[in-house]
Structure formats: structure tokens, C-alpha cells
């Protein structure tokens, strides 16, 4: 039964008494935030256990023994690094030969802490793109920096030889958006250039060709989208011999158009379903389908051939052949009941498929050969819970980076030439003691009979009496898959202390391909929450834990998940952690980037769609008379993706009803919740100590 805030006389919603908390940096709202931060969160942070947990997590995050991830740019290998001495981080480079040693020699290219001191700023690194062609190849870069970790950032031209920002160089003012190098004097740019140039979701609506010395707002328009589009961008592919320009028009999540941009400005639509993902590598076009696609092709005898390709498949065809009208695709991968395509990676001559088989990775190598693709196993593929693959230099090399990990095994990084045994390069140290721990996979039965997998990390001698403090984590949205990964913070703060950890692979995610995601969209959103509740019930039925010892945690869309578990299944949990969440689903589409998620949740301004959206809007499902478990709500003032008003307003009504609420809002951090290792350690320790105290760990 819906609480009256969700249905009133005449089916009208009452006035929101806490809407003033949506004023992100308003003085009244910030005064409320400071007051809430000073309550239970401050008391929790004052304990000796919290300090010890926070300090240990900070030590892990700052450790010099972490794997420095590198990317090849020209002859150098670049890495961005944060530690105790570099709070905001340094961009640095080395050689592969040096990287292979225990103590690589790093050359600092940009020190963000020093930059902040010089400019009296709070810049957070957002990445860099390097020019890869022409006389200035590998010398010029565009560096993206964000104030306080927000999604909006600035782009500044940087010289990798002088290691200084280019005086009078390209500068994109603060906005959501980005750039793409065309040549040393030209960029594609998509950004806020004045009134009417952003979509209703707060992303760029116009893509421009920006020539050096031209004001960005006067740059040539190459494509102009509509206000109700999601995101417009333009990209240049500088692969030698295959130089092409593209325009991307995102209408919504998983609803895109891709155009080939000709030298004369003419646009040619890459005519595939809008729900599909197109990729271009040298002479090949790849198409990753989310839905079945029936297409006609004409054979050599002029006969029309109708072919249906299954959703979740990966197809390939020569790019020029496709543009000429052929639809005779190679089927590179087709899903089965238990498998899905997690990812695919091109090298110079090969394509590596990363397949999830009941949420465990398996690698396959495909090689174009006389018009066909020859399939072989990946030589020396790691046997681990999670394996990730990335190209070292897909233009010139057949080498790939391999990352392998699971809950109890620290990540290892190897480099492998396709067809040869991988060469281990780096391994993360053990940040917690895994002895006596084991990993299991189980399946829970959801309300409609669907089998929902989950991973369980527990002690070998676990007593099945329901007394074990257990943390259940999930996400269930946007086709994002959750797989076993190593976390020194979770291991040291939870597993090592005797806690049980559970990762749920509920519908809405991508663990079994697009269909697993689509099963929990819009009016079927309830299935994600039913799946998570089914896992919770299965844990109790197995004697792993009981409601008073079971906690649940999630962030962003996972915060919407945990908000619904709080309001719809409060009897299943002893504590709930809700991080950077969506919670007010009536207002979400009007707040920051919220309009971009209507393909996932629906349009609350449409009365028919509001009828089902109201059933998973925790802010409206709240019942002041109901009994709820203790709640930790966290967010960030600088989160310009999911509005902090969601967490603020939910906390306000919970507190007004006298519920047990711990609230903490980080002033910096963006959607990730933290801008530095110190902030990340504090936020992480809050969650683990809150759960430990409430669940009896």
C-alpha cells in the first residue's frame, strides 16, 4: 500500500516540504547539511574503531605497492597516481623497460597538487587525450580538470615536452562535454557555448569543429541535436590509412545514432538499430546488438535474403562494404542461456572476446582470415573470478594488458602478445589476511521463478546459525555487470574481522546480456528489488545470517535499490547504507542529469508512467508509522550527476519521523563521493563502521 505522500485526494501529490534542500549551495540548505554532518556521523567518526578503520583504508589507498595502471602514448607509458604525498595526484610517465622493474623511474609531467597551490584551486584530475598524428604527435595533449570532482570540467591544452600548459592554447570553459583531436590546430568540441546549446539532460547539444585562435562559441557547427536529445559528440579516428570523422547522437541511454561525417560536411547514418553499439576498427565495422535485428540483404544472384540476428550478438562486416549497402554480417558471438558478451578488444590483427559464463570470464581470440574469422582459445588466459583485457596499442601492436582478480586474490597485471604466454608485470599485495576464507556461488529463486546468481565470501568454519554479520551489495541497472574483484578496504574492514560479504547479480545489470537488463526496465523495475530480496531471504534460509545481522549497501542506481529495500522490505535487514542515491522519482528527471535516465525508469511527468514509477520511489513510499532499520545516507555537494537533494530530502523526512538516521555529505567528491584518498577513506570507514556497529560485528 502506498503511503499518502504518493497518492492524495484527486491523485495529486502534496507540496514537498523539503524541496528547499534541492538548493545545492544555498545557505539554508548548507546550514542543514552542516548540522546533520555534526550529528551521528561525527559521533561515529569519533570512535577509536572508526579511526583505526579509516587509517588502515587510507594506508591501502595511499600504498606505493598498488599497481600503477599505464597506457601507451608514443614511446612512453603514462600513469596517474595518488598517494600520501600527492593527495590530488601526479601525471607521470616511464618506459616499458623501466616499468618491468620493481622500482620504475617515473618522470612527473603534471603535479595537480602543485597546480592547485599555484592557482588557489581544488582541481581534480579527469584525464587527458594526446594528439597522435602529424608533426606534433605525442607532444600536445588536452588535459581535463574538474572543480571538486564534479562531472563538469575544463579542458586545457598541455605541452608534453615543456610540461606546461600552452600559453594562449585551446581552453574549454567549465561545462559537461569534451573534445577530440583532429590535427595540431583543430579539435572537435562539444560543450556549453551559451543559451540553448545544452540538452535538457545538461549535456552538449551541438558539436563543432574548433580551429586554433577561434573563440569556441564561433567554431563551425558540424551537428546540432535537439533539446530533448541526451548527448551530442563528434570524434576523429586518426588511424593511418583509415582516417574518419564521426558524429554521435545519443537520444537516450541505449538509443544512439552514429553518422559518418564527410569532408563536405555530409552525414551518412550508420544504419543499424538505435539500441545497438557500433564500433569501427580499421576496415571493420562491429555491431553489438541489444535486441533481435531482422535485415534484408541481396546475394550474388540478386535474390533477397532475410536474416535475423539475436539480441546480445556481436556482428562484423567490412566498413566500406556496409556503407555500400551489404548486410551480410559475420556472426562473431551469439549468446546462450548462461553466457553473455562482457567486452571485446581489438589489437592490430586480432579481436579478443571476453565472455561471461554464469558471471565468470572466458577469453576467445578471433582472427580475420581470408574473409572469415578464425577462432582460437586465448593462450595462457588467467583462471580467475574476473579477467579484463585492454589493448596496449591497437594501431601497431597485438599486445594486450590482462588484469586478473577475485575477492581474495589481489589483482595481477600481465602483458601478452596474442598467441604467446602472458608475462606477469605487477601484482597488488595482500592488504588483508585471506586465510580461512572461501568463495561460493549460489542461486536464489526470485518471485517469478528466475534464478538469480550471487557470490558469497565466508569463513570455511562458518556456523550456520543465522548469527553472522553479513553485507549484501548490489546495483542492478544500466546493463552494468558486477563481478568478483579484490578490495583491500572491504577485506580489511569487513572480511578480516569475521564478516560475510555477498555480491548479488540481479536483473537490471548486464551479467546475462541485454535481456537481463531489459527485464527490469520501467514498469518491470520491481524485478530488481524482488531479486535482491530473494537473495536476502536465501541467505537466511541457508543459515548464513538473519535479518538483524544482515546489512545492504548500494550507490547511485544502487542507492535507489537500497532505498526501495528500506521502504519495501524493511523486515529483511538490520541496517541499510544508501550512497549518492536517486530517491525522489517524481522529481528525478528535473534534477541535474536526471532526464537522461528516463529510458531506464520512465517519465514521471507522464501520468500513465508515474503510476508504475510511484511504486519504486522511496521518497514517496516512506511511511512515518512504519518500522525501519537504521540507515546511513551519504552524498556529495559537488555531485552534479545525481542531485544531493535526493539524499537530503530522504534524510529529512526520516529524521522528522524519529527514525534512526546517520547522514553525511562530503563537500567535494562529485558522483564518486570523494575527491582524494583521505575523503574516500573517511566515506568508506563510515559505511563499514556503521554496518559493524549495527549488525554486531
Explain what the structure shows.
- With 697 residues, the chain is of the alpha+beta class.
- Among the domains are: 27-58 and 431-695, Alpha/Beta hydrolase fold, catalytic domain (Rossmann fold, 3-Layer(aba) Sandwich), CATH 3.40.50; 336-428.
- Helix content is 20%, strand content 34%.
- The chain is built from 14 helices and 39 strands.
- The strands form 9 sheets. Strands 32-33-35-34-36-37-38-39 form an 8-stranded mixed sheet, with helices on both faces. Strands 5, 6, 7, 8 and 9 form a 5-stranded antiparallel sheet that branches. The chain has a 4-stranded antiparallel sheet with strand order 1-2-3-4.
- The radius of gyration is 26 Å and the shape is globular.
- The chain starts with 26 loop residues before the first helix and ends with a helix.
- The model is unreliable at 1-11 (pLDDT under 50).
- Helix tally equals 14
CATH fold name of the domain at 27-58 and 431-695: Rossmann fold
Q: Report, as a whole number of angstroms, the end-to-end distance.
A: 34 Å
- Report Rg: 26 Å
Largest sheet: 8 strands, mixed
Assembly annotation? single chain
CATH architecture of the domain at 27-58 and 431-695: 3-Layer(aba) Sandwich
User: What is the name of the CATH class of the domain at 27-58 and 431-695?
Assistant: Alpha Beta
Going by CATH, what is the homologous superfamily of the domain at 27-58 and 431-695? Alpha/Beta hydrolase fold, catalytic domain
SS content category: alpha+beta
Stretches where pLDDT is under 50 for at least 5 consecutive residues are: 1-11
Give the strand tally: 39
Mean pLDDT: 95
Q: Report the portion of residues in β strands.
A: 25-35%
Categorize the overall geometry. globular
Major beta sheet, strand line-up: 32-33-35-34-36-37-38-39
Helix content: 10-25%
Amino acid at each position: 500500500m502506498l503511503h499518502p505522500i504518493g497518492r492524495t485526494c484527486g491523485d495529486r501529490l502534496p507540496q514537498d516540504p523539503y524541496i528547499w534542500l534541492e538548493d545545492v549551495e544555498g545557505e539554508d540548505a548548507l546550514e542543514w547539511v552542516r548540522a546533520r554532518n555534526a550529528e551521528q556521523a561525527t559521533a561515529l567518526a569519533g570512535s577509536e574503531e572508526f579511526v583505526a578503520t579509516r587509517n588502515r583504508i587510507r594506508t591501502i589507498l595511499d600504498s606505493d605497492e598498488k599497481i600503477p595502471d599505464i597506457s601507451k602514448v608514443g614511446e612512453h607509458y603514462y600513469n596517474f597516481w595518488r598517494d600520501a604525498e600527492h593527495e590530488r595526484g601526479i601525471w607521470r610517465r616511464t618506459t616499458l623497460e623501466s616499468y618491468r622493474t620493481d622500482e620504475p623511474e617515473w618522470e612527473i609531467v603534471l603535479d595537480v597538487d602543485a597546480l592547485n597551490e599555484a592557482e588557489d584551486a581544488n582541481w581534480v584530475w579527469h584525464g587527458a587525450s594526446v594528439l597522435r598524428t602529424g608533426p606534433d604527435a605525442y607532444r600536445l595533449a588536452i588535459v581535463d580538470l574538474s572543480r571538486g570532482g564534479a562531472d563538469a570540467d575544463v579542458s586545457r591544452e598541455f605541452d608534453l615536452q615543456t610540461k606546461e600548459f600552452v600559453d594562449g592554447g585551446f581552453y574549454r570553459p567549465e561545462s559537461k562535454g569534451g573534445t577530440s583531436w583532429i590535427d595540431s590546430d583543430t579539435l572537435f568540441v562539444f560543450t556549453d557555448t551559451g543559451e540553448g546549446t545544452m540538452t535538457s539532460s545538461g549535456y552538449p547539444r551541438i558539436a563543432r569543429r574548433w580551429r586554433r585562435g577561434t573563440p569556441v562559441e564561433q567554431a563551425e557547427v558540424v551537428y546540432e541535436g535537439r533539446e530533448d536529445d541526451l548527448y551530442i559528440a563528434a570524434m576523429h579516428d586518426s588511424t593511418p590509412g583509415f582516417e574518419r570523422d564521426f558524429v554521435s547522437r545519443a537520444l537516450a541511454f541505449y538509443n544512439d545514432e552514429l553518422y559518418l561525417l564527410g569532408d563536405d560536411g555530409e552525414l551518412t547514418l550508420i544504419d543499424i538499430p538505435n539500441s545497438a553499439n557500433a564500433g569501427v576498427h580499421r576496415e571493420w565495422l562491429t555491431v553489438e546488438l541489444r535486441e533481435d535485428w531482422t535485415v534484408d540483404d541481396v546475394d550474388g544472384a540478386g535474390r533477397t535474403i532475410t536474416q535475423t540476428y539475436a539480441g546480445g550478438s556481436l556482428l562484423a562486416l567490412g566498413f566500406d562494404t556496409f556503407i555500400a549497402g551489404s548486410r551480410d554480417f559475420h556472426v562473431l558471438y551469439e549468446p546462450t542461456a548462461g553466457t553473455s558478451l562482457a567486452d571485446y578488444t581489438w589489437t592490430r590483427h586480432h579481436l579478443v572476446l571476453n565472455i561471461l559464463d554464469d558471471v565468470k570470464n572466458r577469453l576467445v581470440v578471433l582472427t580475420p582470415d581470408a574473409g572469415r574469422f578464425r577462432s582460437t582459445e586465448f593462450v595462457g588466459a588467467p583462471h580467475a573470478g574476473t579477467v579484463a583485457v585492454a589493448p596496449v596499442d591497437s594501431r601497431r601492436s597485438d599486445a594486450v594488458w590482462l588484469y586478473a582478480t577475485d575477492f581474495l586474490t589481489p589483482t595481477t597485471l600481465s602483458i601478452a602478445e596474442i598467441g604467446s604466454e602472458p608475462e606477469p608485470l605487477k601484482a597488488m599485495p595482500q592488504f588483508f589476511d585471506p586465510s580461512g576464507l572461501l568463495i561460493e556461488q549460489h542461486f536464489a529463486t526470485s518471485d517469478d521463478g528466475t534464478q538469480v546468481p550471487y557470490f558469497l565470501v565466508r569463513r570455511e568454519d562458518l556456523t550456520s546459525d543465522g548469527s553472522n554479520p553479513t553485507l549484501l551489495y548490489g546495483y542492478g541497472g544500466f546493463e552494468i555487470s558486477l563481478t568478483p574483484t579484490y578490495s583491500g578496504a572491504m577485506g580489511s574492514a569487513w572480511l578480516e574481522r569475521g564478516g560475510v560479504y555477498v555480491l548479488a547479480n540481479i536483473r537490471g545489470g548486464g551479467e546475462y546480456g541485454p535481456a537481463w537488463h531489459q527485464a527490469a526496465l520501467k514498469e518491470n523495475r520491481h524485478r530488481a528489488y524482488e531479486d535482491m530480496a530473494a537473495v536476502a531471504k536465501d541467505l537466511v534460509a541457508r543459515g548464513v545470517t538473519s535479518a538483524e545481522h544482515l546489512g545492504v549497501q548500494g550507490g547511485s542506481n544502487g542507492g535507489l535499490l537500497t532505498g526501495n529495500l528500506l521502504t519495501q522490505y524493511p523486515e529483511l535487514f538490520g541496517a541499510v547504507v544508501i550512497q549518492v542515491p536517486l530517491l525522489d522519482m517524481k522529481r528525478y528527471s528535473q534534477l541535474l542529469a536526471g532526464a537522461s535516465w528516463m529510458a531506464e525508469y520512465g517519465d514521471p511527468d507522464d501520468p500513465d508512467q508515474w503510476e508504475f514509477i510511484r511504486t519504486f520511489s522511496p521518497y514517496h513510499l516512506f511511511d512515518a508509522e512504519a518500522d525501519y532499520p537504521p540507515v546511513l545516507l551519504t552524498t556529495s555537494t559537488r555531485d552534479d550527476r545525481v542531485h544531493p537533494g535526493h539524499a537530503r530530502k530522504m534524510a529529512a523526512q526520516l529524521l522528522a519521523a524519529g527514525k534512526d538516521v546517520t547522514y553525511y555529505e562530503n563537500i567535494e567528491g562529485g558522483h564518486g563521493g570523494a575527491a582524494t584518498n583521505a575523503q574516500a577513506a573517511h566515506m568508506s570507514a563510515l559505511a563499514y563502521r556503521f554496518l559493524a556497529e549495527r549488525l554486531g560485528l
